[in-house]
Amino acid sequence: MQSGQLVVLPTDTVYGIGADAFDARAVADLIAAKGRGRDMPVPVLVGSWDTIDGLVSYVPATTRALIEAFWPGGLTLRGRARAVTELGSG
Questions:
Q1: What is the mean pLDDT of the chain?
Q2: What is the C-alpha to C-alpha distance for residues 18 and 36, in angstroms, rounded to an integer?
Q3: Domains of the chain: which residue ranges?
Q4: What's the CA gap between 16 and 52, in Å, rounded?
Q5: 18-55 tens-digit pLDDT
Q6: Which residues, listed in sequence order, are joined to residue 7 by a DSSP beta bridge?
Q7: Could you give the C-alpha distances from 14 to 10, 27, 31, 67, in angstroms and in order?
Q8: Which end of the chain is more exposed for a tag (fewer CB within 10 A), N or C?
Q9: What was the pLDDT predicted at 29?
Q10: What's the pLDDT at 90?
């Protein structure tokens, strides 16, 4: 995937659109493609602590305990994203 480009991902029922969550321009393009505003953020699939710690401003101990208990596997959690300025521009 080229930096900043969107990708189409097959899922079990439909196709999804994805982007690099660490690339602010790609995320902005994804939000625009999905017709969403900043008030309805897109989900981010993560598979490592580095990704969580890179995207979320704070992870409480109770959340870390849930992750440790249920990973690997389906687990949905919400967190406050780091500011775009903290992530960089890609």
A1: 84
A2: 14
A3: 7-87
A4: 21
A5: 999 888 889 889 999 998 887 887 888 888 889 898 88
A6: 18
A7: 6, 20, 18, 27
A8: N
A9: 92
A10: 45
3-class secondary-structure state, position 18:
strand
- Please say if the pLDDT value at position 2 is more than 80: no
Peptide bond into 60 cis (omega under 30): no
Instruction: Provide the residue type at 59 as one letter.
Output: V
Burial of 59 (0-12, 13-18, 19+ CB in 10 A): middle
Q: Identify the weakest region by mean pLDDT among 14-23, 49-58, 69-78, 80-89.
A: 80-89
CA 49 to chain centre: 13
Helix and strand numbers (H, E) in the chain are 4, 2
Token pair of 79 as six digits: 């967190």
CA distance 22 to 63: 22
**HSE-up (13 A, CA, CB side) for residue 64:** 8
pTM: 0.70
